[in-house]
């Protein structure tokens, strides 16, 4: 966990207990985080802090997530709970105020959740915010302001922003269709009509199929034996299909009827959409199919600039080194793989030279297993 020193906010800095250092920073940065360790598990971990309300203040929630395991399915979000939460009893249905952060499951779900509890209901953002799905550490920041605007940042860059009322369905719509209005019966919505002047030509109707005029009764046709000869039927070239009158502009066309709207009597503006009376617990309440995600650098503050600074000092300070180290690791892995491939190829070539030497044992790993498998096979035979 990176030292944040005096970086405190509504007086609150949340730091969950540091666990194992991350793979990349064990030595270099003495950095660590909380890492999920077993596949297909629910995780629940929370930390309590001095309760506060964000009324009249900006709220910034920030943390880093690193899907070191090349995740295919798992949550990477945090929840902010009211102080009343019983930590020991925290579970998926525990009522929270805000849920924020990345969630990945297959290629279909790669999004940043921003969910607010409003009057007991969880309300999801109407916009799609894509999360990062690589193996690097990323900084996730949610800013909620007392003017009911918000901002979501990833790696200290804005990825979404706007008004709470616009981007969540907290409130019923401002306008609704006027229930008293109704399309007049004589409202003509047909742009084109049949031309009343047009009529079907006398010679229009022709059969679709006719006997082939070129067909001839075969010489050896025997009426007694073969029955009466009939020529084969062909498509009539003069057949014109079903007649349809010409289309003309409808002189009575009034355009598409638009249902008039009225102010929704159910709509009540709420200037306090952003406000919660009590925040008291930060929690990780997650399901992970593939574990290995590292959470770190949790920060709650009322100071946007401070959060950005802290982001720079934590995620910002390590991102380059992290990339380099990953490149080195990948390079090292490639090198090892190449070496193994080469060795295997050499061995195969040797085997080729000593053809007929069937007793030769594979001395590499898996030799025992092969023996077992061989024994089992023999038993079966
Ligand atoms: C954070 O880092 C970025 C990029 O170096 C810089 O532009 C920005 O001013 C920094 N923010 C703060 C608050 O220090």
UniProtKB/TrEMBL annotation:
Name under which the protein is recorded: Calreticulin
Residues in the signal sequence: 1-19
Localization terms from the record: Cell surface; Cytoplasm, Cytosol; Cytoplasmic vesicle, Secretory vesicle, Cortical granule; Endoplasmic reticulum lumen
UniProt feature, compositional bias: Basic and acidic residues: 175-219, 319-346
GO cellular component: cell surface; cortical granule; cytosol; endoplasmic reticulum membrane; sarcoplasmic reticulum lumen
Molecular function via GO: calcium ion binding; carbohydrate binding; unfolded protein binding
Keywords associated with the record: Acetylation, Calcium, Chaperone, Cytoplasm, Cytoplasmic vesicle, Disulfide bond, Endoplasmic reticulum, Extracellular matrix, Lectin, Metal-binding, Repeat, Sarcoplasmic reticulum, Secreted, Signal, Zinc
Binding positions for an alpha-D-glucoside per the UniProt entry: 77, 79, 96, 103, 285
Taxonomic classification: Eukaryota, Metazoa, Chordata, Craniata, Vertebrata
Entry's family note: Belongs to the calreticulin family.
Cystine pairings recorded for this chain: 73-105
Residue ranges with Acidic residues bias: 220-229, 347-373
Organism: Nothoprocta perdicaria (Chilean tinamou)
Amino-acid biosynthesis in keyword set: no
Disordered as annotated region, ranges: 163-247, 309-381
InterPro entries: Calret/calnex, Calret/calnex_CS, Calreticulin, Calreticulin/calnexin_P_dom_sf, ConA-like_dom_sf
GO biological process, any: protein folding
